[in-house]
Amino acid sequence: MELDGRVAVVTGGTRGVGAGIARAFLAAGAEVVVCARRPPDAAVEAGRRTAHFEPADLRDPAVAGEFIDRVIRRYGRLDTLVNNAGGTPYRLLDAADAARHARVLELNLLVPLTVSLAAYEHLRRARGSVVMIGSVSGTRPSPGTAVYGAAKAGLESLGRSMAVEWAPEVRVNTLVPGMVRTELVPLHYGDEAGVAAVGRTVPLGRLAEPDEIGEVAVFLASPRAAYVSGASLLVHGGGERPAFLDAATVNKED
User: Fold this and answer.
1) Which residue has the higher pLDDT, 120 or 254?
2) Given the residues 90, 148, 189, 227, the one annotated as active site
3) Would you call 227 a catalytic residue per the annotation?
4) pLDDT per position as a tens digit, 24-45
5) Cα Dmax for the chain
6) Which residue(s) pair with 55 in the sheet?
7) How far is residue 19's CA from residue 29's CA, in Å, rounded to a whole number?
8) How far apart are CA 156 and CA 138, in angstroms?
9) In the sheet that 80-83 helps form, which strands lie side by side, from edge to edge?
10) 252 has pLDDT over 80
11) What is the 3-class SS of 150-198, one letter each residue?
12) CA–CA distance, 182 with 238 (Å, rounded to integer)
């Protein structure tokens, strides 16, 4: 298979988008390590292959370094780091103080930097790659998740600079998903009717599935993307129809 003999780490890879990415790497033949603060309810599997779980709170740089060390002791190499861990609750800016908002920045921007630095020497020796998992929230206004959006915008910028500094040994790219149908979808969009209504706002007519995001992550880590570095790849089903088109009173179809 395409990634036979390769070792991939997927942070936050026990559920949602992260689990979809882990399954795609397993299906492509890689050995996969997933991490999170708590063990998953069920192992992350694809076919007859299972991802190895390591507990780690990556907000602590020492813990992040120890986690990468354990991966190297177990597998002897590291080829791909997928910085997926992140997230945020819905919170308007004036509903919390700066210290609480800073924790969102820490998880979504500083943690990927911390883990990337811990993994750098191993990735360099393997001539490997980093895949940042961004968000369309970092490309447009993000009311209710403004600090998360700012962190994801910063993550793209970090990835572009990292791609220059770490070339040619390590490629760095950012995968920018739109809305994805995960276990947390009801918290954001409501019941099935709400999810379907939100899906209709996407040109392709639906939300992405986690495994579809995973397939793109595998591409970015694979030899097929050997000349792709410093890129941001939108995986958002066509994005969003501009609101002004529906508000205009001209050029309406009968």
Assistant:
1) 120
2) 148
3) no
4) 999 999 999 999 999 999 999 9
5) 66
6) 36
7) 15
8) 8
9) 52-55, 31-36, 7-11, 80-83, 129-133, 171-177, 232-235
10) no
11) HHHHHHHHHHHHHHHHCCCCCEEEEEEECCECCCCHHHHHCCHHHHHHH
12) 19
